[in-house]
Write a structure and sequence with these properties.
There is one protein chain. By secondary structure, the chain is an alpha+beta fold. It folds into 2 domains: about 90 residues, Roll (Nuclear Transport Factor 2, Chain: A), CATH 3.10.450; about 100 residues, no CATH class. It is built from 7 helices and 8 strands; from the N terminus they run H-H-H-H-E-E-E-E-H-H-H-E-E-E-E. Strand 5 and strand 6 form a beta hairpin. The chain is globular.
Length: about 250
C-alpha cells in the first residue's frame, strides 16, 4: 500500500494541476468582455467591403438621407485641379480649408458615369489622403484616353462643384441626386481581397459624432498595405448604423 501511495502521489499532483489549469483557463475565457457592438458593426462593414458582400454593406449602412452625408468637411469651396477622366470614371484633386483641422487639406474626389447614373456624373466620395490618387491613377491609366473624356470635363467639374455646395448648404436632396449609390451596384471593377482587422476603438470626431477608429491590413495578391482610419456611426432608434459616404482612411 505504501508503494502505491508513493507512486500515486505524482499522478495526483499531475491530475489536480491539470484540472486547476483547465479551470483557470475557463474562468479567464469566461471573464473576457464581449466586443462593443459599435466595433462589431465596424468589423462587419470592413470585412464585407473586402469580399464584396454588398448585402451586408447595405444592411449596416444608414439609408436616412439626413444621416447619409453628415457635416460638410470643407470650410470653403475646394480648388479642383489635375483632372483625370477615363470613360466612366473621373478623378479630381482638391485642396481646401477643412472644418475639421485634423483632416488633410489635400485629397481627391472620385466620380462615376456608368449604367447606374443614367448619363449623369455622380460623386462616389471624397478621399482625405493624397496617396489614394496613385491607386486610382493606376486603375485608370490602362484605359484608353479619348476625345469624349476631354469633352466630359465641364460636366465633371459641374457635378463636383454642385455636390460640395449642396453639402455646405446641408441640401441632402441635391446631394442624394448627385451621389453615386455604390452600395446598390455590383462594383464590377472591384477585386476582392483578404482583410485582417488589427485594432478597433470607439472614439469621436471634431463634429462630436461617434466613430470607430481602426487599423486593418489589406492583403492583395503581391503586397500588403496597412490602413488607419475611422468610420462614423449613428444611432437610429435603438440601432447603430454606419455612414459609408465619407469614410476616413489613410495609409
Amino acid at each position: 500500500m505504501r508503494h502505491w501511495r508513493a507512486r500515486s502521489r505524482p499522478l495526483l499532483f499531475l491530475l489536480f494541476g491539470s484540472l486547476a489549469l483547465l479551470l483557470g483557463a475557463g474562468l479567464r475565457g469566461g471573464s473576457a468582455a464581449p466586443e462593443d457592438p459599435r466595433c462589431t458593426l465596424a468589423r462587419s462593414f470592413l470585412t464585407a467591403m473586402a469580399v464584396k458582400d454588398m448585402a451586408t454593406v447595405r444592411r449596416v449602412m444608414t439609408a436616412d438621407p439626413h444621416h447619409l452625408f453628415g457635416p460638410c468637411t470643407f470650410a470653403a469651396l475646394p480648388t479642383f485641379s489635375d483632372p483625370m477622366i477615363r470613360g466612366t470614371r473621373a478623378i479630381l484633386h482638391w485642396s481646401a480649408r477643412m472644418t475639421d483641422p485634423g483632416l488633410p487639406t489635400h485629397g481627391i474626389l472620385v466620380l462615376s458615369n456608368d449604367e447606374y447614373t443614367h448619363g449623369a456624373w455622380q460623386v462616389i466620395q471624397p478621399y482625405y489622403y493624397p496617396e489614394m490618387a496613385s491607386i486610382y491613377h493606376m486603375r485608370l491609366l490602362p484605359r484608353l484616353h479619348t476625345g469624349a473624356d476631354d469633352k466630359a470635363l465641364p460636366k465633371v467639374l459641374d457635378a463636383a462643384t454642385r455636390f460640395v455646395k449642396a453639402w455646405q448648404a446641408d441640401d441632402t436632396t441635391t446631394m442624394r441626386a448627385l451621389w453615386y449609390d455604390w452600395p446598390h451596384t455590383d462594383r464590377k471593377e472591384f477585386i476582392p481581397f483578404r482583410l485582417s482587422v488589427e485594432t478597433l476603438a470607439v472614439s469621436s470626431n471634431a463634429y462630436k459624432e461617434t466613430t470607430v477608429a481602426y487599423t486593418v491590413k489589406c492583403h492583395y495578391p503581391f503586397y500588403t498595405v496597412t490602413y488607419h482610419g475611422a468610420l462614423v456611426l449613428l444611432k437610429e432608434g435603438t440601432t447603430w448604423k454606419l455612414r459609408g459616404t465619407d469614410m476616413e482612411f489613410r495609409k
